[in-house]
């Protein structure tokens, strides 16, 4: 898949995963009266599944078994979480407004996640000659 199509697909898959994350968490908080942190964890798990499968099958189309790269993609997800947490900590310590945190995260985390996913988590196996 050409790079531009991969980027667009990555954005669509990520948007769908984000919407699912928020919807699951919101429904569990509002309808099931579940603790917010637990509801958020369930939402994150649902989002991970959509994000992983969408990127494995569509964005990077590895052609591998469905869950063969899941551990690596979980690593990518955890690096993204750590990066956004570090950005939040830095912006708060510098007294920056919340919108600055959001702008920096949007500028850094998705591109970093895309690169890690493309060149590590979903890297195509090398052809043996």
Can you tag this structure with a few keywords?
129 residues; mainly alpha; 78% helix; 0% strand
Please explain how this structure is put together:
The protein is mainly α and 129 residues long. It is 78% helix and 0% strand. The radius of gyration is 16 Å and the shape is globular.
Note the topology.
Blueprint: H1 3-30, H2 36-59, H3 70-93, H4 98-121
Helix pairs in contact: 1-2, 3-4
Summarize the structure.
This protein is mostly helical. The chain contains 4 helices and no strands.
Structural class: mainly alpha
**What sort of overall outline do the alpha carbons produce when their principal axes are compared?**
globular
In the predicted model, the low-confidence regions spanning at least 5 consecutive residues are none
Helix content: over 70%
> Helical stretch count?
4
Topology pattern, helix = H, strand = E: HHHH
């Amino acid at each position: 898949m050409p790079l531009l199509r991969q980027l667009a697909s990555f954005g669509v898959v990520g948007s769908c995963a984000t919407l699912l994350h928020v919807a699951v968490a919101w429904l569990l908080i509002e309808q099931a009266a579940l603790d917010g942190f637990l509801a958020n964890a369930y939402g994150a798990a649902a989002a991970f599944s959509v994000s992983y499968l969408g990127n494995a099958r569509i964005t990077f189309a590895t052609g591998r078994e469905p869950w063969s790269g899941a551990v690596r993609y979980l690593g990518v997800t955890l690096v993204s979480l750590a990066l956004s947490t570090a950005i939040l900590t830095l912006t708060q310590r510098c007294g920056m407004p919340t919108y600055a945190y959001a702008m920096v995260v949007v500028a850094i985390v998705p591109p970093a996640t895309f690169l890690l996913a493309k060149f590590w988590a979903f890297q195509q196996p090398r052809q043996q000659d």
